[in-house]
């Protein structure tokens, strides 16, 4: 009996392992060739300037203008002091939709607080490309409260077609604040471009902090993008399993940490979304995880079949993941093995896709251009 039970247990374990392996899609043949353009120290984000050059942020606190033809770079002065360490530092960089007129650039970073605390912040400044400096810098939003620890800032930034500013504010590995409307941790925030709160936000009458919030119950959100029809998609890292791609809706609660498609790292289970239908379930979830970072919904035509697709960088999965959309539905369509951790994905003015390699594992982070195969 003991031998039979042991054999059955081993067989079940092997079947479980086989199922887990089969759940991971085979890498797709790449329709592109990677061309290295430059190297950076811990790069985190990038955005294109109107003249075709790139702004690249480095986590320790540098902002660089990069010539995409030669890889040459110039440092921009006036970057705010950052709380550098762990997942904290200088992060996203995004241009105002009317940058050509007003020169505003928006930056997110981990801002030092009292004692050993820190919190995400978003600032805007005028970018003087002649003087290579940021001017009139002002912080227009802060995470509340600042807490101890160096994880889960989120602080990705995007603008919608109406010029509203959207910020992913992760829960700083503190769990419960994601459900606390007295905190803006674990929330998606919607503001005007000057940081003021629009009166049509869903919780506008519930206090200054709650008024910022568009949706709640999120964990660690490192990608935000609008599709061609104006729908907002955000991906977030799950705990142990359960990375998510969510369609974001006004006032919706996505359930973390009450529900998740993953479990706690110490093995404690978290109920699945299906057990609590009052919480919004992800449109796509990944177990094993892809560790999503960076996100763009592709509007170009240089890669066959990619127009309208989401492109997500994978950290632990060392991949570029293509997601196909059908209205409010989505699915993973292809996964490309990149052989390295991908931190950021961006679309160039001519439709070329650019990637930043994550530089936090003891190596420089490379900037790649993906040249379509003939």
Identify the notable features of this structure and list them briefly.
374 residues; mainly beta; Neuraminidase; 5-stranded antiparallel beta sheet; 4-stranded antiparallel beta sheet; disordered N terminus
Q: Would you give the CATH topology?
A: Neuraminidase
Strand content: 35-45%
Distance between the termini: 62 Å
- Write the CATH architecture name: 6 Propeller
Shape: globular
What class do helices, strands and sheet pairing give? mainly beta
The first-level CATH class is given as: Mainly Beta
Quick one: how many beta strands?
A: 25
- How many whole angstroms does the radius of gyration measure? 21 Å
Number of domains: 1
* Helix content range: under 10%
Q: In terms of per-residue confidence, which ranges show pLDDT below 50 for 5 or more consecutive residues?
A: 1-22
CATH superfamily: TolB, C-terminal domain
Can you write the helix and strand succession as a string?
A: HEEEEEEHEEEEEEEHEEEEEEEEEEEE
Mean pLDDT: 93
Q: Count of DSSP helices? A: 3
Instruction: Describe the sheet with the most strands.
Output: 5 strands, antiparallel
């Amino acid at each position: 009996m003991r031998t039979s039970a042991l054999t059955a247990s081993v067989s079940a374990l092997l079947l479980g392992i086989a199922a887990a392996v089969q759940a991971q899609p085979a890498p797709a043949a790449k329709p592109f060739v990677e061309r290295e353009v430059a190297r950076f120290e811990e790069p985190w984000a990038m955005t294109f300037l109107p003249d075709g050059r790139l702004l690249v942020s480095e986590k320790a606190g540098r902002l660089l203008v990069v010539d995409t033809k030669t890889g040459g770079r110039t440092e921009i002065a006036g970057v705010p002091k950052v709380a550098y360490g762990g997942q904290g530092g200088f992060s996203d960089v995004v241009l105002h939709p009317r940058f050509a007129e007003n020169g505003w650039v928006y930056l997110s970073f981990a801002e030092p607080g009292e004692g050993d605390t820190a919190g995400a912040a978003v600032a805007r400044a005028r970018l003087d490309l002649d003087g290579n400096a940021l001017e009139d810098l002002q912080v227009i939003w802060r995470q509340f409260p600042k807490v101890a620890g160096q994880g889960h800032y989120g602080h990705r930034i995007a603008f919608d077609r109406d010029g509203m500013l959207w910020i992913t504010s992760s829960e700083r590995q503190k769990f419960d604040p994601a459900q606390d409307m007295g905190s803006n941790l674990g929330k998606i925030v919607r503001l005007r471009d000057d940081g003021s709160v629009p009166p049509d936000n869903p919780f506008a009458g519930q206090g200054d902090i709650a008024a910022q919030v568009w949706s709640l119950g999120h964990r660690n959100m490192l990608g935000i993008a609008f599709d061609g029809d104006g729908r907002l998609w955000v991906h977030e890292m799950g705990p142990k399993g359960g990375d998510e791609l969510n369609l974001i809706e006004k006032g919706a609660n996505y359930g973390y940490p009450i529900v998740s498609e993953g479990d706690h790292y110490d093995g404690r289970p978290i109920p699945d979304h299906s057990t609590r239908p009052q919480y919004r379930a992800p449109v796509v979830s990944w177990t094993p995880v892809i560790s999503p970072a960076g996100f763009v919904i592709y509007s170009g035509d240089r890669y066959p079949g990619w127009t309208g697709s989401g492109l997500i960088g994978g950290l632990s999965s060392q991949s570029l993941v293509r997601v196909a959309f059908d209205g409010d539905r989505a699915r993973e369509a292809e996964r490309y093995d990149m052989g390295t951790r991908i931190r950021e994905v961006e679309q160039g003015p001519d439709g070329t896709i650019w990637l930043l390699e994550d530089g936090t594992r003891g190596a420089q982070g490379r900037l790649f251009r993906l040249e379509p195969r003939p």
